[in-house]
Amino acid sequence: MKNTFTLWTIIKEGDLIVLNPREEWIDNDGKLVSHNSKAKNLICCALTRSEFNRISACKSAKEMWDKLKLTCEGTDKVKETKIDILVTQYEKFQMLIGETITQMYSRFTDITNGLTGLGKMYNNRDMVRKNLRSLPSQWTPKVTAIEEANDLTTMSLEKLIGSLMEHEINMERLSESSSKKKFTNAFKVIATPSTSFSSSLKNAGSKDSDVDDVLSKLQRILKKKKNGSRRIQKKEKKEKEPVCYECKKPGHLRPDCPRLKKIGQLENLRRSTRNSKEKPWQLLGTMKKSPL
């Protein structure tokens, strides 16, 4: 533990200074130089190849540390910008739809850990209240119960998350049981035959004699409605049939009207009598023989 603290002091504050020249080193001077080398080696072993290339030219452990701190955290302005972004996420933090308590706590921990790494910290009381405020409206009874049963100033965040997880499990169990009951009731309704419904009506009719009269009246009304609908359908069919504008009879159009055909034949007969020498009664005889 003592050597570890010495190495971290070298990384944060700088190498241990040896005043004597190399030819006049004593045992303590050799130990100091050894600690400086161990601190540099500790940093190099924790880096990837690309990160090592950034600090390979540094001569001390402190110089390596400062360069890594600048590349990872940035300048003070960059650090302040990151803090502002994380603080905004912290203030707007809410439980998402379909999210579990474990997933919500994981997102919250990522935000708080990022703020802690940048030097911004929230106390336990603020984090407990923030998690309670981030829950949706269906959690209101549980939030009220926790606030009344516990002192939020001394309650730990882990205890709060454990209580919320327990309530979440109970809510899932109750929802599953209620869904099973709804399914069984629906299955019973579907499985019951129609005869049971008719028998129940008969039993009700035996208790109350007026029910039979009501049913008979309803049946008569339904029959009248059916007959009326059939008559309306017949009328609609008749209305849909074509009507001749010449003879005003349904079933054909004016070009196919037999009355027009007879009139046309008579006109042809008159023309032919004018132009031919035959007598009109002879032409009428030929018309009667020819089919319409």
From TrEMBL:
A GO molecular-function descriptor: zinc ion binding
PANTHER family: DUF4219 DOMAIN-CONTAINING PROTEIN-RELATED (PTHR34676), TRANSMEMBRANE PROTEIN (PTHR34676:SF8)
Domain of life: Eukaryota
Region described as Disordered: 268-292
SUPFAM superfamilies named in the record: Retrovirus zinc finger-like domains
InterPro entries, per database record: Znf_CCHC, Znf_CCHC_sf
Keywords recorded for this protein, A-Z: Metal-binding, Zinc, Zinc-finger
Gene3D superfamilies tied to this protein: Zinc finger, CCHC-type
Residues annotated as domain CCHC-type: 244-259
Protein name: CCHC-type domain-containing protein
Acyltransferase listed as a keyword: no
